[in-house]
Structures are given as C-alpha cells and as structure tokens.
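Field: COMPLEX_INPUT
Field: COMPONENT_COUNT = two
Field: RESIDUE_TOTAL = 226
Field: MODE = joint
Values follow.
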Amino acid sequence: GQQLNQSPQSMFIQEGEDVSMNCTSSSIFNTWLWYKQDPGEGPVLLIALYKAGELTSNGRLTAQFGITRKDSFLNISASIPSDVGIYFCAGHFYNQGGKLIFGQGTELSVKP
Amino acid sequence: DTGVSQNPRHKITKRGQNVTFRCDPISEHNRLYWYRQTLGQGPEFLTYFQNEAQLEKSRLLSDRFSAERPKGSFSTLEIQRTEQGDSAMYLCASSLVEATREAFFGQGTRLTVV
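Field: COMPLEX_OUTPUT
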C-alpha cells in the first residue's frame, strides 16, 4: 500500500533557528499537504501543494512539492516557542476520493 | 465557532461496551471523513461520506465499527464490543467536493478502553 516516510522523527532546536523536515513516498501523489498538531488537538492545515515543483510560503513556513511527485519538504524559518508541536505531511492520490495518507510525524521542540 | 466539532472530547469505557461518537462538519461541507490516530502515529483513514452516502471504508474498519451520516449533515461513529486495541484518538474532517484535498479536522475524541 501507499506509505509516507517522514524525517526526522524529532528535532530539538534553539529559538531563532531554521528547521527543515521532509517526506518521501513510494507512490506518486497529486497533492501534498502539511499539518501541525498540538497535544490533544486535531491537525491544522498549514500549506497545500498542488503541482510538481511548486514552492509555497505561509508566513515563516515554506514547502515544496518535489519534481518527482514522490517527495515534499517543509522549512520553518526563525523558529519561535509556539512552533512546538507535531508536523505531519499528507499525500492525496487523485482517484482516492479525498482520502489522505499521512506520514508518521516530526515532533518539534523549541528551546527559548 | 464554525469549525468541525466532535463530541465527546474524551471517553473512557470498559472493554466490551459500545460507544458512539458524533461529528458536526463545517456546515457547507459535503464530504466528511473519519480517521483514527494512535500514539506516535499519523492519522489513518477509516471511512468517508459524500452527503449521506458512505463511499469508501478502510480495511481498518472492522465489523464492530459502523458509521452513519443520515441526513448528510452530522455523522456518528459507533464501536461495538470495544477492545483495548480500539483505544485511540478518533478524528473527523470535512471538505467541499471541489476542494477535497483541503480537509479541515475537528479536535478529536480520545477513546480509552480499560
């Protein structure tokens, strides 16, 4: 079945540092999405990517849809304490009715 | 609040009991999804509805699980004869058909089976 491998599993950084995480797939996706989840809450959509090669920003967040359509990365610049949480990538395959395949998550800790 | 609403937020039940969760999607959204998330993992798809029709069910959805969306608005997820392995966060999401890929999630229902 389709699987997403997300790395790293966890990151411990100092406030102000930049962060990069990525996701790779064994399958081609036609959409990549990045979500953030706080403890005890549902995932919140951060960025959606629709075309291979697309680079999209949302404030301090930047994400790219890989040319091969099998990978994506998320960068966070100048991290702040409220960036703490678990970041998930998710892929959508065009003929699967909206079902999303999620990665295992990257847990981000930011030290003030 | 016009987001996706789930109730209850937490449920503790004894093994063997039945439980039911409710999801109220964003009002104009015609697609509704259920996902399950265990500790340290990403959400896993269970099933989804377009209006009142259940269009897909995952193999994760055993015979003990049933979901309904009778009037195309809110949905319920029932688990019969709960087992300890059912302990998880159950997440509901909704979207427009035209923007299927941009699903918005509720806060989830945390189920603990003791």
